[in-house]
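Duplicate of #3305? Posting structure anyway:
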């Protein structure tokens, strides 16, 4: 099983920020589970979007990316796994915080 990233997987994780990580064996997911996951997406009218396959603490994880938090939680409730929470803030949130810091009077004074 390859571990790493493709442009498409990284793009999915960027555009669809609610990411569910599901542990998998080295051989991948079994056929029955894969079919259930596809059916989950179909019933919610959501296109399946894969994120990266990662190796964390000796365990492989498959990632699915969702457009909203509720669907990601439903996926986790049905199939297990966990919600991936990146350590970094989204880019727009980082910019907003930086702009607010720049407005603080004590930081704008020259020393």
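Output from current build:
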């Amino acid at each position: 099983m390859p571990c790493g990233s493709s442009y498409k997987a990284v793009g999915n994780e960027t555009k669809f920020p609610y990411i569910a990580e599901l542990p998998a064996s080295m051989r991948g997911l079994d056929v029955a589970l894969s079919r259930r996951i596809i059916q989950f997406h179909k019933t919610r009218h959501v296109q399946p979007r894969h994120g990266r396959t990662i190796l964390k603490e000796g365990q492989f994880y498959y990632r699915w990316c969702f457009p909203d938090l509720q669907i990601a939680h439903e996926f986790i409730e049905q199939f297990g796994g966990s919600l991936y929470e990146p350590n970094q803030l989204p880019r727009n949130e980082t910019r907003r915080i930086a702009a607010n810091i720049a407005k603080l009077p004590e930081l704008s004074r020259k020393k």
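Confirmed duplicate; merging threads. The chain is about 45% helix and 20% strand. The chain has a mean pLDDT of 82.
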